[in-house]
Every structure is written in C-alpha cells, then in structure tokens.
Design brief:
This protein has one domain: Rossmann fold. The protein contains five helices and eight strands; from the N terminus they run H-E-E-H-E-H-E-E-E-H-E-E-H. The two termini are 22 Å apart.
Length: 181
C-alpha cells in the first residue's frame, strides 16, 4: 500500500480528543471513516486501489461476491460507493422494516440463498454492527463474509460466522496521523 494513500486517509479520518464510541468505550481518538465522503477523490482511490482487490478476491469456496451489503450510515454509504465502482449490486440494510411504502428491510438488491454477500462497514470495534447486519441477512440464507475499512478491535469476534478482512489497522492510521503532528 502507498504511504501516500495511507497518509491521505489518516489526514481526513483520524480525530484526536475525547470520544464515546458506539460500543460505549471512551477513546482519545476517533476514526471518522464517514468523513471520506467529503473527499471523493481519496475515497475513490481507496476503493479502486485497496477495496476492489478484496471484492475481486474469491471466497474460501472459490465463488465471487454477488452483492455488497451495508448497515447504518457508514456501511450503507460504503456499500453504495463500492457497489457502483466495482459494478456489483448493493444492498442497503435497514435496522427494521419500515412501516410505510414497500415496507422492505433491504433497499437495492435483495439477497437470496444464491448470493455471496460481502458485508462492508467503516470501523470494527466490538463487531456489533456486523452482527446486526448478519442477523438481518441470515434469513435469506445467503453466504457472507466481512470487510471493514478500519479494524480497531483487539480481538476479532469469533461469533460472526464469516471471514473478516480489513484495509487498515487502527495502529497504521494512528501512526500516519501522528507523523504529521
């Protein structure tokens, strides 16, 4: 990976201060991967150079991914961008079925048991959003694996039921961010 791309991503995503994370933990830094949406050239370079090879990678049983799924603001945005650039259908997963309109839990592609889904998210800390996404997709009987932009988990949760890959470690981004202070 290019140190230049790592440096660009760190510059726009790493924030220092006092933060409460989704997991409830407090931290002296925040990895604001959603902020990449304000820097489309960096986001596009990240997808083309680092995420696309992961999407193009065969699964453990030799199949190709047929769908990119995302949950929550970070995951849905990434699924849409990655799906568009990689030309793979995207599934935007809602927290719950809406009570109006079509009442769907999935927007875009609706996974079936024939699909191999890559569940994508911005940051892995405890695995809760990956679990929630998995639980909503599981009734479709689609196969799935996971890809996160940043892994900040100390230990990868072993209850996810799929392979977890990541683009950057928390440490890589923090070192790149601190080198410019």
């Amino acid at each position: 990976m290019s140190d230049d791309l790592l440096s660009k991503v760190a510059r726009v995503t790493v924030k220092f201060g006092e933060f409460t994370l989704r997991s409830g933990r407090t931290s002296d830094h925040y990895l604001d991967v959603k902020n990449l949406s304000a820097y489309p050239a960096i986001e596009k370079e990240l997808v083309e150079r680092l995420i696309r090879p992961e999407v193009d990678r065969k699964t453990l049983d030799g199949r190709n991914y047929t769908c990119i799924a995302g949950y929550g603001l970070g995951g849905q945005h990434l699924a849409s961008v990655v799906g568009s650039i990689c030309e793979i259908p995207a599934t935007l997963v809602r927290e719950a079925k809406k009570g109006y309109g079509t009442g769907k839990i999935f927007e875009g592609h609706e996974p079936t048991e024939a699909d191999v889904v890559l569940i994508i998210d911005d940051v892995l800390t405890s695995g809760s959003s990956l679990r929630e996404t998995r639980d909503l997709i599981a009734p479709t009987r689609a196969a799935f694996n996971y890809l996160v932009v940043v892994n900040r988990a100390k230990v990868i949760p072993d209850d996810l039921g799929g392979k977890v890959r990541w683009i950057f470690s928390e440490q890589e981004l923090l070192e790149a961010a601190r080198s410019r202070l």
